[in-house]
Amino acid sequence: MNISIITVGKLKEKYLKQGIDEYLKRMSAYAKVEIIEVADEKAPEVLSASEMLQVKEKEGERILAKLHPDTYVIALAIEGKQKSSEELADTLDKLATYGKSKIAFVIGGSLGLSQQVLQRSDEKLSFSKMTFPHQLMRLVLVEQIYRAFRINRGEPYHK
């Protein structure tokens, strides 16, 4: 299985990088996992609704350019479906069983994802109704993917 995590912006926080690197190392036994960063759109602090839309669309174009036509896309979005760790594990297991070997998780920038990215996605996943920094979501996501592999293999870790 090949998993891509496509995310907007560079990760600057060293502690988050260390955590992500640890889970990527652990997951190398289960799947090829890569993080693809696309540039965030530079914008002033205060934006009009149309400017926000433009920012999301430009970031969305960069995300869409990284997606292959045969990739199963899971967009992280507040309005998405919330799943337990077991349900996420089941989703990944079923995708693998039915020949979906390329999976991309997409994390938007600070303004979220464009309509085009949401329409391209096969599934929308929400970790909570709360808003989290998109940099922190990378760490949470890689940990949950790792947990899913451990659950599917019946290996100790998940409690």
TrEMBL record:
The keyword S-adenosyl-L-methionine applies. This is Ribosomal RNA large subunit methyltransferase H. NCBIfam families: PRK00103.1-3, PRK00103.1-4, tRNA_RlmH_YbeA. Coiled coil: none annotated. It catalyses: pseudouridine(1915) in 23S rRNA + S-adenosyl-L-methionine = N(3)-methylpseudouridine(1915) in 23S rRNA + S-adenosyl-L-homocysteine + H(+). Transmembrane segments: none annotated. Its EC number is 2.1.1.177. Specifically methylates the pseudouridine at position 1915 (m3Psi1915) in 23S rRNA.
